[in-house]
Amino acid sequence: MKLNPMQIQRAGWWLMNRAPSLRCPGCGANDWHVDENVYLLASPPVEPVKGITVARNVGQLNVPPPATVSPCITVVCAHCANVQLFGAKAMGLFGPAPDPEKVNDGSKGT
């Protein structure tokens, strides 16, 4: 999945307002590029099962629940190509555009 131009603009706006002093841990630069790709980080739904499970009848096999996924975007340092991950959902990239008056009042909510 790719971000559309409006979502890329919103991500840049979010970073400028929420992390204005973000410095690259690799080189110390403050020049970032928002990548258009959305990546899904998967978390296993349950603790891994120890040992080997043999399924004799696939029709009776209990299928584990799907993994939990978190959509993330990458922000790339324009100087050294270091990559930082940010939660796309927490940044509000998939919902309606935020009200600038509510965001500019110093509140930290999404």
Structure description:
Helices cover 16% and strands 25% of the residues. By secondary structure, the protein is of the alpha+beta class. The protein has one domain. A three-stranded antiparallel beta sheet has the order 1-2-3, covered by helices on one side. A hairpin with a 5-residue loop joins strand 2 (68-77) and strand 3 (83-87). The protein is extended, with a radius of gyration of 19 Å. Residues 105-110 have low confidence and may be disordered.
Key structural traits:
alpha+beta; 3 strands; disordered C terminus
| Tally of DSSP helical segments | 2
Task: List low-confidence stretches.
Answer: 105-110
Overall 3D shape:
extended
User: For the terminal residues, how far apart are their CA atoms?
Assistant: 22 Å
| Fraction of residues in helix | 10-25%
Strand content: 15-25%
Radius of gyration: 19 Å
Number of strands: 3
Quote the average pLDDT: 82
The strand order across the widest sheet is: 1-2-3
Q: What summary fits the major beta sheet? A: 3 strands, antiparallel
Class inferred from helices and paired strands: alpha+beta
- How many structural domains are formed by the residues? 1
**Helix and strand pattern:** HEEEH
Topology record:
Elements: H1 5-18, E1 32-43, E2 68-77, E3 83-87, H2 100-103
Antiparallel strand pairs: 1-2, 2-3
Give the structure's gist in a few sentences:
This protein is of the alpha+beta class and 110 residues long. The protein has helices at residues 5-18, 100-103; strands at residues 32-43, 68-77, 83-87.
